[in-house]
## 1
Amino acid sequence: MPVPLTISDFKMFRAVCEPRYSDAYLIYDRTGEVVHEVQKFFNDVRVLSATPNQTAMQSDQGALALELGQCRLTSDKPDSNLETFARHCKQYFDIVSDCFDIKVFTRIGLRLLFRKTTTSLDESKAALNSLNLLNRKPVRRFGAAEHPEEFIFRWEGSQIGAMLRVKAETSKIDIILPPELAETGSDIHKSINGLVLDVDYYTVAPVERAQWDATAWVPQSMRTIKREIDSILEG
């Protein structure tokens, strides 16, 4: 009999927080001001690309995106309780809101990705099938296979919504070294097999900026996500 999984069997490897707002046309005049302010709070800020509607930045604290109708902070090395990540979110979103005069967020989303690493893709698929998320009998579907390789669930109410994606997958990492480093070592190619939980937890109703604090909402939302995932995995 398969051993039941819990969220503690998975490691969080990415956290993304994204507030959306009505098109902020001040982006055409104040993107430089946003970058200037970001450099005061974030380390080693580099502008990767910049267009009138969209700017991408990278820092030690994560990747920052600035767009006409949304902004975003992504960390591929989030702290386990997301308190540090939440603090960085507040710093960045306060800068954008002040510069663009944003009063209301139309949607706030927190996306967390967790992975249980396995030795092979087959092991990942076996772990997925052992969850029996739909309590169904194995039947060959569409002439393809008996077992699905991915489940997607969505729940949405008047205030909060959530989407959960559960998938067995192989992630590939390919790093091509620049010519000046090629003599010191070969390019890096790596595959990671695992069972991945991808959760998008988001607000449905508009949220007034003055009533939202990322330092409280992000860690609290993470605790809710972990609690609900455990309940789902238990069946």
## 2
Amino acid sequence: MATGRDAAFGFAIWDKVIRQGLYAVPASTVINVYHQDIVIHGGAHLATARGGYLPIIRTSAVPDGVAGLLGSVTAIFDEDMDPVKYIAATEAGDAVVAGYIMVADSPDQLFVCQDNATIALASGGMNANIVSQTICAGTAATGISLQEINATGVAETAALNLKIVRPHPLDTAAAAYCRYIVQINEHYYGDTMAGIA
């Protein structure tokens, strides 16, 4: 059952990781990148010192209401491939990349995330957007995302970020901050994705 308190943890893997990919975070990003953030494909590749040419993530926008989403960040590394808690906005790194991230990037990947208000537990099959609270806010001490499911504007047919698959099995009464199993709509690698907006 939901705790009734806001304890955001971003988008954690549900069940198992289907696939992961390595992505570059361009130097001097304007957003922070935290573990369990949903990130956006940057639409290009970058020559990096540690991974050769790698796809980049978009670092100029949060994913709220944006198509071309990739998935959730599962690991974060600095420009030398050393593990770090998060990549801070304006991080210069090696002047090419601020760092590298692993992303659970399968279009079929499921995630668990809490809502930011109250969504009816019967809303399986509905769509919702991500809400990042601030510029991809997270907790610096833990490196964990604060992204949530936006309870405002949940709809059956709207082209929103997420498909609500079902409530978390332990959340049995509708309340603020319930957890839901979700899947990304209009995934960058999905069949219906036309390109980067």
## 3
Amino acid sequence: MDLHSVKARFVGSYLIIILILAAQLPVVYVLIAGMSRKYTQVAEAASLKKRAVEISYILNRHIMNGEEELEKPFQEMKGDYSRLIESLQSGTKDIPPITDPDILKKLNAVKSKW
């Protein structure tokens, strides 16, 4: 195959494009892995608000209506809420620990009020 032929130039162009795309794969993998770790933290932090609303609803029903059977679910949900805050601070096998000092300060404020 002649080096200056059209066929050789097409093959060379395709090889260069394939090499450029292949070189990007590790970078994309690292970015996606980092984003997925952050996503689990964000999802768990978002569930804190939902859980707080559910707990306050159960507590209000327990107090206002005198429904004593809601005491046990309230205590269980309260324990789960505290464990979730601690797992966000210290990390678990599924959730990496939060290291941002501002966010840790806010989590400590929520934990102290809880």
## 4
Amino acid sequence: MAEQFLSRLEKIEASIESLGEMLTRMITLLGTVTELKSDLRVVKDEILEGVKNMPQPVASEASAAGVSVEQVTQIVKTEIEALTAFFDNALGVLKLELQATAAVAPPPVAIATTAPADIAGAPQRAGALPHQQGMIVADNLDNILKSLKMGCKAGPVLEIMTGAKAEIMKIVPSDAIMIKIDKWVGVVSAYSKRHELQARDILKLKKEIKGDIANYRPA
């Protein structure tokens, strides 16, 4: 009985690990596309400003070729709008794929509750960790919570989230909190690293994190 459970558990853990790696890659790509889109808006403004202030020799050459400054400006706008539309589409597809992948993640909590009491290494459910380990998890979640202030930027918050996850993994690599942290990272990664998080996302994240802190650090 115990051997069968361990065999099944190993397969599920391997599946979770593979899924986690896939989610991490998708989240990283999502953040990159979002940041590129933000950078593109800045580049667009710089290019258009450069076209307006085109040096006279260049403007003369363009005129001699039968191309006006207005035509150059319109060409630049059209190309950048097409590129922006491409990024918008890629961003939408990535978000849908990320949501679909996260939705099929097998919940380690259900597995842990069915594990025989004498089997070591079974994934822990939230609140079932030894007191000292639970306090360490709660402390790291506290660090994430403190970073979520009004006006906070995505980049620093992501660094704290990934750092907290790394610290928690040192003591409970298969705990259910890992899936939640990945979910929170996904929310923040939807922003450019230099952009501020919107209030609704900050409040939602804080509410979820406070609930999990209470699970790991009972009053």
